[in-house]
Specification:
By secondary structure, this protein is of the alpha/beta class. It has 5 helices and 10 strands.
Length: about 190
């Protein structure tokens, strides 16, 4: 069994949402708790890490908090810091604004990780790097991408071995599982 850390990315500015969306209450709890509950079904609690540049806002959630080593780099900066700070060789990533991801996705990614630096789920013609599985072997490329200000995750991974794995045939899959909440209007009623 591979040792895996679970990373919740909560470093965004929530500019389209108008306030900190991770703390917005959805179905009786903050959005971030949905992501945390998903990750608790994937990894041991001791392996959970919250990546945020606002640690005070999340100090009551009872998990380890890290901040970006390289600020203002978007999700790539959070991914880089998570890989740097993870005690495990692999990290399973989920953003704070994607409450519909099924925990089975990460078992699927792990099963498809042999020989790859990263496994990124796809659906239709879209890749979902924010819900991927990454190895520490990605760190050098992430460093180079940050230094050259190429801040898209897929660009940073372009020279690595990446498995773009389609989970649509899996029992846990639903068409809306990757729906993320960027605006209040994105919240399903």
């Amino acid at each position: 069994m591979k040792k895996v850390s679970g990373i919740i990315l909560a470093g965004g500015k929530s500019s389209r949402f108008g306030r900190d969306k991770c703390l917005y209450e959805y179905k009786g709890k903050p959005l971030i708790m949905h992501s945390l509950d998903i990750m608790k079904r994937v990894v041991e609690s001791a392996q959970l890490i919250l990546s945020t540049n606002n640690p005070v806002a999340y100090s009551g959630f009872g998990i380890r908090i890290i901040s970006d080593i390289h600020r203002n780099c978007g999700p790539l900066g959070g991914l880089h810091s998570a890989l740097t700070n993870s005690p495990a060789d692999y990290i399973a990533v989920i953003p704070c604004d994607t409450p519909f991801v099924h925990p089975g996705l990460y078992d699927f990614l792990l099963k498809n990780s042999e020989g790859y630096d990263a496994v990124i789920p796809t659906h239709g013609k879209y890749a979902e790097p924010m819900c991927g599985l990454y190895r520490k072997s990605c760190l050098g490329n992430l460093d180079k991408a940050i230094m050259s200000r190429r801040l898209k995750i897929l660009d940073a991974l372009s020279t690595l071995q990446v498995n773009f794995a389609d989970p649509s045939g899996e029992e846990f899959y639903t068409a809306g599982m990757f729906h993320n909440i960027n605006r209040i209007s994105d919240i399903p009623s």
